[in-house]
Amino acid sequence: MSQSLAQIASYVGGLTVYLRNLGAEVPEPVLDRYDSGEIGFAITAQLPGSNDPKPALITAQEIWQPTGTGRFERSEYGYDLIDYPANRRRAFHMHDVSEYLSRLGVTAHEHCEEVLGKPTCDHYLGLPVFTGYDGLNALLAAWSDPGPLGCAGLRCVR
Amino acid sequence: MQDKPFLSPNEIASELAVSASTVLRLIHEQRLPAIRVSERIYRIPVAAFEKYKAGALESPSPARVSAEVKKRPRIGAGERLPEAAEPIARVRSA
Questions:
Q1: ipTM
Q2: Which of A86, A126, B23, B49 is most buried when burial is the number of CB atoms within 10 A of its CB?
Q3: Domain encompassing residue B37
């Protein structure tokens, strides 16, 4: 769904405050303009709780392409949780879409590491994540759950 | 309470001396920040509850739009692209 620049700026501000109100430390957000004509942002949130060996981090990145009517559509995303205290990672990605489509037949993929840096599969089949809020909610739910991430139950696509 | 990273709605209810349903209403009305783990399970980070009690919850405001034009970043930079493999559709039909 296409959005105006002002709508996307409000959306980015909303994502930031959503994380801050959950206790995360998040710098002031900026909506960037790129030399490709696209716009986008990258938010990094330091989550509350243990900082041993480092605090858990969530990053949300999105790129929006112009639709030619002064509006933009989200074309790529990456939502990542690196949970350093629990030594694990979870991520939802959609980027390099043509490569992923031609090589794996999928547009979205996921990452899941029960042990950080030791994935048993490089890419898992991913379902599209509709908004940044959905991506953040899924990562926050994983972060708040002390049990396994459940990587073994995902479908490896290499 | 400080040692525990998350609180349940019941624990919040006890802290605030209200019912659990009141806490759930606060969550559904987005007045109390909470992480929705599943349809019926919510966890409230202690840091979020402290902000709530202190009246320090923020209201959203639009992000600044940069006037500077930057080089387009690459999402997934450093990530190895997948090897060409059997497409999912072919795997499914096998």
A1: 0.88
A2: B23
A3: 6-53
